[in-house]
Amino acid sequence: MHTIGIIGTGVMGTAIATGVHAAHPSTGIVLFDINRKTGQALAEKIGGTFAQSPKDLIQTVKQESGTMVLAVKPQHLEGLAQEIGKDCEGLRLISIAAGRSIQTIEPLFPGSSVIRFMPNIAAQIGKSIVAVAAPEGTAPDFLEEAQTIAKSLGEAVLLDESLIAAFTGVSGSGIAYVFSFIHALALGGTENGIPYPKALTIAVETLLGAGELVKATGANPAELLTRVTSAGGTTIKGIAALEKGAFTSLIMDAVRCATEKAETMEKGKA
Predict the structure, then answer these.
(1) Total structural domains in the chain?
(2) What is the pLDDT of residue 1?
(3) 111 and 196 together in one domain
(4) Which domain holds residue 177?
(5) Is 265 labelled as part of a ligand binding site?
(6) Is there a binding annotation on residue 7?
(7) 83-94: per-residue pLDDT in tens?
(8) Where's the Pyrroline-5-carboxylate reductase dimerisation domain (predicted)?
(9) Domain check: are 103 and 19 in the same one?
(10) Of the residues 97, 131, 164, which one is the last residue of a structural domain?
(11) Which of 88, 116, 164, 188: disulfide with 109, CB 3.0–4.6 Å?
(12) How many other C-beta atoms are found inside a 10 Å radius of the C-beta of residue 131?
């Protein structure tokens, strides 16, 4: 892969830098962050380079025909664009800014080519699913490289940008629903006599096992549910209790509400 420049070394910027370094050790990585101490420490950790300014980073990326990742918060994009926007002509940019469409990013960095990522917090350990959205006409080699970068965070899925809000509802925010379920499952164990730390371990491993089973078999979760649910048994009693509380509808409502909020953010009405 070509050199990668990353502006912003917060949670996601750090995840991308460490993920790319782990998967592609020979790839040059140039970093910049307004918190120089943090940025320099990360550069030293991965054997990368810390640029003295965003303009210096851009110059290096251009010289190496590389890609630049904008790993800054959405509210900081305009300020960054005022500083470096005119210097980005011809650059390949990847943005991870939530709620900021490619259509709104491109005018800030005129003459650049933009691809959009939407990861979740599991990117910190290389276990995120990352949505990759690219406009029509994106150079195939840029799209391929973007997907390679995304895979350094976990798994990549290519989506039309119109589905990014729904992806946020399922994954970006959805991981929080899973945290809630894990906690609730552990509390249930505790209520029935298992100390919370052990109940939490049991709940986590159960969720991991369920996910891996779906992934490995390719089976519909509903099919696997029927396999484990015996007539008159313990599982159906638990499932009945979940549905008495409208479990399925609640999860679907959570996805819908988060999706609607993401769509509102996309329209600049957040």
Answers:
(1) 2
(2) 74
(3) no
(4) 172-266
(5) no
(6) yes
(7) 999 999 999 999
(8) 161-265
(9) yes
(10) 164
(11) 88
(12) 25
54 marked ligand binding residue: no
What confidence score (pLDDT) does residue 2 get? 83
What strand order describes the sheet that includes 92-95? 49-50, 29-32, 4-7, 67-70, 92-95, 113-118, 128-133, 154-158
Rounded CA-CA distance 101/7 in Å is 18
Q: Is 72 annotated as a binding residue?
A: yes
| Whether residue 71 is found in the same domain as residue 179 | no
Q: CA angle, corner 170, sides to 169 and 173, nearest 5?
A: 55
What value does the CA radius of gyration of the chain take, rounded to a whole number of Å?
21
Token digits for 100?
């900021």
**Is 172 flagged in the annotation as binding?**
no
Cβ proximity of 71 and 8 under 8 Å: yes
Global pTM value: 0.91
- Here the CATH number for the domain that contains residue 255 is 1.10.3730.10
Q: How far apart are CA 215 and CA 217, in angstroms?
A: 6
How much is the average pLDDT of 28-56?
Answer: 95
Question: Residue 269 pLDDT > 70, yes or no?
Answer: no
109-142 pLDDT tens trace:
999 999 999 999 999 999 999 999 999 999 999 9
Asked whether residue 99 falls in the same domain as residue 192, the answer is no
Asked if residue 68 belongs to a known ligand binding site, the reply is no
* Cα 58 from Cα 45, distance rounded (Å): 21
Q: Is the domain of 111 the same as that of 206?
A: no
Choose the final residue of a domain: 123, 138, 164.
164
Q: Was 193 annotated as part of a binding site? A: no
User: Residue 12, annotated ligand binder?
Assistant: yes
Query: How many residues appear in the chain?
Result: 270
